[in-house]
Design a protein that fits this description.
Keywords: Signal. It comes from Streptomyces gobitricini. This is Secreted protein. It is a single chain. With 310 residues, the protein is mainly α. It has one domain. It is built from 13 helices and two strands. It has a two-stranded antiparallel sheet. Helix 2 crosses helix 7. The longest helix has 24 residues.
């Protein structure tokens, strides 16, 4: 089982020459998308349907995990439902750490990630998987994700380009089918929607206003004694430090980052531009958004029933 680390999407899009920047921003090239596209009047973007609440996301995830557990039991395997997030303290900062209180407690979240890793290493689920003979482990994977020989896989073209595929067999697909009905439509729409945050972050990072805010943040960070070109570079440098005082240094740097994010205006600018591009991307991919949201909403009664049974 892969350990889900803290995701800092800005690392992929800020700073010249980063490898994945082109992949994240290619969909934006060739058409001005910012609020101040030269020579073009601003166009009102349609309002996207509300995303599921945190409670609804937790409910849908829990139901999916319980359905997988029961399906795997039917295949002769044990499965331990995984939480949707590594811990209650888990946070994502796609542009810049902007919460001083969180930063003062967690720095760059390395202990959150380490705690998740420790829990997994000592978990009953890991001991179970480690104890499976090679042939049984292969069978376990096929039962969970479907066979690689599946001739009718789920397919989803995503906005970054390329196609995601997944078997329509196995317990994961079975759980989606039980919750959402048409598993092909669900997979196609959800993967499209799920691919858009990276593009949104890339578009925001290209905006002149964001770049101006980043320059102001950079100046503030230099004055604070924590010079850095951009937030992901600062985090990368900090996490390379594994010395005895690393955690305290993380807190000092992350707190300065959050303070400068506020005083430089970078946090407010990023939030405003993020909302703008969220609406623009909804307009560009409205069908996928509406389908995914409708299927999630329609799945809630089934999810409540599944979770209620435990």
């Amino acid at each position: 089982m892969a350990i889900r680390g803290l995701r800092w999407l800005l690392a992929a899009v800020v700073g010249a020459g980063l490898l994945t920047a082109a992949a994240l921003t290619v969909a934006a090239q060739g058409s001005p998308s910012g609020p101040a596209a030269a020579g073009k009047p601003a166009k009102a973007a349609p309002a996207a349907p509300p995303s599921p609440s945190t409670e609804e996301k937790d409910l849908l995830h829990r139901a999916e995990q319980l359905l997988i557990r029961d399906c795997m039991a039917g295949q002769g395997f044990r499965y331990w439902p995984a939480p949707r997030l590594p811990s209650a303290e888990y946070r994502e900062f796609p542009y810049v750490v902007d919460d001083e209180r969180w930063a003062a407690k967690h720095g760059y979240g390395r202990e959150i990630e380490r705690g998740h890793e420790r829990r997994w290493r000592s978990s009953e689920g890991k001991r179970y998987l480690d104890g499976l003979p090679k042939a049984r482990r292969t069978a376990y994977t096929a039962a969970l994700f479907g066979s690689s020989a599946d001739t009718t896989p789920l397919r989803a073209e995503v906005a970054m380009g390329g196609t995601f595929t997944h078997s329509d067999q196995g317990c994961a697909a079975d759980a989606w089918r039980r919750l959402y009905g048409d598993v092909h439509t669900w997979y196609r729409s959800y993967q499209m929607v799920n691919s858009l945050p990276g593009i949104r972050v890339g578009r925001v990072a290209e905006e002149p206003e964001f770049q101006a805010g980043l320059a102001a943040w950079r100046s503030c960070m230099k004055k604070s004694g924590h010079p850095a070109e951009n937030p992901p570079e600062l985090r990368r440098v900090r996490l390379l430090d594994t010395g005895a005082g690393a955690a305290a240094a993380d807190v000092a740097a992350a707190t300065a980052e959050a303070r400068c994010a506020r005083t430089s205006g970078l946090a407010a600018t990023a939030e405003r531009l993020d909302e703008h591009h969220r609406k623009v991307l909804y307009g560009e991919h409205r069908s996928a958004f509406d389908t995914a949201r409708r299927m999630q909403r329609d799945a809630l009664p089934t999810a409540r029933d599944v979770v209620g049974r435990g």
